[in-house]
Write a structure and sequence with these properties.
The chain is mainly alpha-helical. Helix content is 75%, strand content 0%. It has 19 helices and no strands. It has helices spanning 12-39, 45-77, 81-114, 118-136, 154-161, 163-170, 172-178, 181-196, 199-232, 235-253, 265-277, 290-316, 329-334, 336-346, 360-383, 392-431, 438-459, 468-476, 479-506. Helix 5 (154-161) crosses helix 19 (479-506) and helix 9 (199-232) runs antiparallel to helix 14. The two termini are 71 Å apart.
Length: 518
């Protein structure tokens, strides 16, 4: 007898697939907003890499979702032993797609970097510096129409994300001539100061370091000095005891006939070696001179006192171990070990020493600004090496330019396509009937993202894309590139607040490996 059972109009696998796709879209939206914060904020290569790994994984999962639809009906059709086989294949496909996409994007970036010329890499370094200067407010581009405050807006962030594409096309030929060495130096200093933040906050941190770490260390140091003076007061007794032990040893070895103050020439080397084994460093050929013996004992005693002094300091803070005793308060503050502690706590990595400040103004000039000048000088020195063809730093500059727009494009592509896939799933579930024409779904997936992009690019307006300079940028780019750039800048005005809200409230502020305080 033939069964009248018909396939469900709302199959369970379609519900699960819609839920998974929706969950992916929420994560992708949160990632997209965080990515825009990173790449549109003048981030370093390390910061870009930290979030790029998440982007590669999400792109791989987006690719895997294309294969899930073909595997789900069979997977939900039976719960026999074949179910575990089907589930294993689905997991294997997912990991293969994620791993493959991760490698593909990494290889793509490496190929683009390796194919760049020395001149392109030098231009890239200039553009990276100019990009950071624009975000930090250290420089500006006449005609762009972006004030410093506007860089917090999503359209400006999107422009900075795609800045290498626009800048590389329109500014590449000019930047080497117009971006002079003095300008680079000034930009680097301003950028360093901007990244360091509020000088008053640094001074407050400095005072807290003195109060919580250095002042207790100074108190421990003074206590140690008192113990040093107490031990030194016993030195005469230590010398007398050492001489008594030495004399007793000489008498025992000579059966009571030896004179400890007059050692025969033929016995001197043996006696000197015995004393040195005990740490008493008498001179070569020493014959029993009491004054020389006392000096050697005093040296040994001083070494023991200093060792115990530094051991007790190290118990308080191992970083103070190298301090010698009997420093004044000023000498204590100027010592390399103490200043190293302060600089480490302030997270300063460039300067090695500074005059101890007593006022906020002195701190600003002698410590805060000194660190910024040191960082700028170091970066300027690094810049001079970036034009060499095989210099790793030059390649890093290229990666800093290439990775952000690629990551953003892959993120937007995955979000667009799967959004419309989710729409198809929801429509099918709502109507309770399967799609009679599969080509309609395919047409929606292909045409809808293009229509949305075209609409964002042509129907929306933006002050940034109206500027004469941006028009100049766009004229130098191919249409296939200019259209998505313009659409993204327009669309992020509406999309970024939503995406950021999803990240903050739905994903509980998850930062995708990027901590803005770093």
């Amino acid at each position: 007898m033939q069964s009248d059972r018909r396939p469900s109009k709302r199959p369970a696998w379609l519900c699960v697939l819609a839920l998974v796709t929706g969950a992916y879209l929420l994560v992708e939206m949160g990632f997209n907003s965080r990515l825009l914060d990173v790449v549109g904020g003048g981030a370093s290569l390390e910061q870009i890499h930290s979030i790029e790994r998440w982007g590669r994984g999400l792109s791989g999962f987006a690719l895997a979702l294309f294969f899930w639809k073909s595997r789900f009906p069979d997977l939900f059709a039976t719960f026999s032993a074949r179910y575990l086989d089907g589930l294993g294949k689905l997991v294997a496909i997912t990991f293969a797609c994620m791993f493959g996409m991760y490698l593909f994007q990494e290889i793509l970036v490496d190929v683009l970097v390796e194919r760049s010329s020395a001149q392109e890499r030098k231009v890239a370094q200039n553009l990276v510096l100019l990009q950071q200067a624009l975000v930090s407010g250290a420089s500006s581009i006449e005609g762009l129409g972006i004030e410093q405050e506007a860089f917090e807006q999503p359209d400006a962030k999107a422009f900075m994300a795609f800045f290498p594409l626009a800048g590389g096309a329109a500014l590449g030929e000019l930047v080497l001539d117009k971006f002079s060495a003095d300008m680079r130096k000034e930009v680097m200093l301003k950028t360093a100061l901007t990244k360091m933040g509020d000088a008053n906050a640094h001074f407050d941190a400095y005072k807290k370091i003195l109060q919580d770490g250095i002042q207790p260390g100074w108190q421990q140091y003074q206590d140690g000095n008192r113990r040093v003076w107490e031990e030194r007061a016993k030195r005469r007794k230590v010398q007398d005891d050492a001489w008594r032990d030495y004399a007793q040893s000489i008498r025992e070895q000579s059966r009571g006939r030896g004179n400890p103050a007059r050692i025969p020439v033929w016995h001197r080397k043996r006696v000197v070696d015995q004393l040195r084994q005990k740490g008493i460093r008498v001179p070569d050929g020493w014959g029993g001179n009491r004054a020389q013996f006392n000096a050697a004992v005093a040296q040994k005693h001083e070494q023991e006192i200093t060792y115990e002094f530094q051991r007790q300091l190290a118990a308080h803070d191992p970083r103070l171990r190298t301090l010698p005793p009997e420093l004044s308060a000023q000498e204590f503050m100027r010592h390399a070990a103490v200043q190293r502690i302060i600089l480490e706590e302030l997270h300063y990595s460039c300067i090695r020493a500074f005059p101890p400040p007593s006022t906020a103004q002195q701190f600003l000039e002698q410590v805060f600004q000194a660190e910024a000048r040191c960082v700028a000088k170091r970066e300027l020195k690094l810049f001079s090496t970036l034009a060499r063809d095989h210099d790793q730093a030059a390649k890093d500059a290229m990666k800093t330019l290439i990775v952000p727009p690629l990551a953003l494009l892959f993120s937007l592509l995955g979000a667009f396509v799967h959004f419309f896939k989710l729409v198809c799933y929801v429509v099918r579930l709502a109507l309770g009937e399967p799609s009679r024409h599969a080509w309609i779904d395919r047409a929606v997936l292909c045409l809808a993202p293009l229509l949305v992009m075209l609409g964002c690019a042509t129907m929306l307006d933006n002050r940034l894309t109206r500027s004469a300079l941006y028009t100049h940028f766009e004229e130098r780019m191919p249409v296939i590139l200019a259209l998505p750039v313009r659409a993204t800048i327009h669309g992020q005005v509406f999309g970024y607040p939503i995406f950021s809200g999803v990240r903050e409230h739905v994903l509980r502020g998850f930062n995708f490996g990027y901590d803005q305080s770093e």
